[in-house]
Amino acid sequence: MEIKQSEFIISAAGRGQYPKDDRPEIAFVGRSNVGKSSIINALTNRRSLAKVGNTPGKTRLINFFLINDFFYLVDLPGYGYAKVSKVERQRWGMLMEDYLTGRAALKKVVLLVDSRHKPTEDDVLMLNWVKHHGYKVAVIATKSDKLTKNELRKNLQLIKDTLSLDEADIYSFSSTAKAGRDELVDSLFEDIVTEQ
What we know:
Elements: E1 6-12, E2 25-30, H1 36-44, E3 62-67, E4 71-75, H2 86-100, E5 106-114, H3 121-132, E6 136-142, H4 149-163, E7 170-172, H5 181-195
């Protein structure tokens, strides 16, 4: 699948601002510093489609990006960032839960984890929550360029074991190197396109 067009549509603070055109949606979730914005930019071949911040926790609203005038990539606020108030973290949690429950247009959730580290308890909870609600899920281990091939192989096994995944459920990717980008685009989005 080729991404020919991508555009930012809205930063939504609640359900009333979500797109209402029933195009399919694929949501990206993960910890605050896992690189959601970077991977969205890499997959769409746009340098600054999604805002990349030097400070984790930059995404505080739900950002919708229209792809090929056909489906949305949805960038959700990162979780697990300690340097925001408890009230703010709770607000983000409610915002995410409001989006992730009962959103008929949501067809798949992509969970991003850092390839350098064992998934956190928050990552495990998020994956279990997504599966419980019956969404298709894909896991991407980001920042794979930071590891040697041997380290990456070991860490992918640790991630699979921690999240109880099989081989088909996980991908590794570097937003910097972009190796395997086309294959990843096909794997993530082809089924959504062909189902419609």
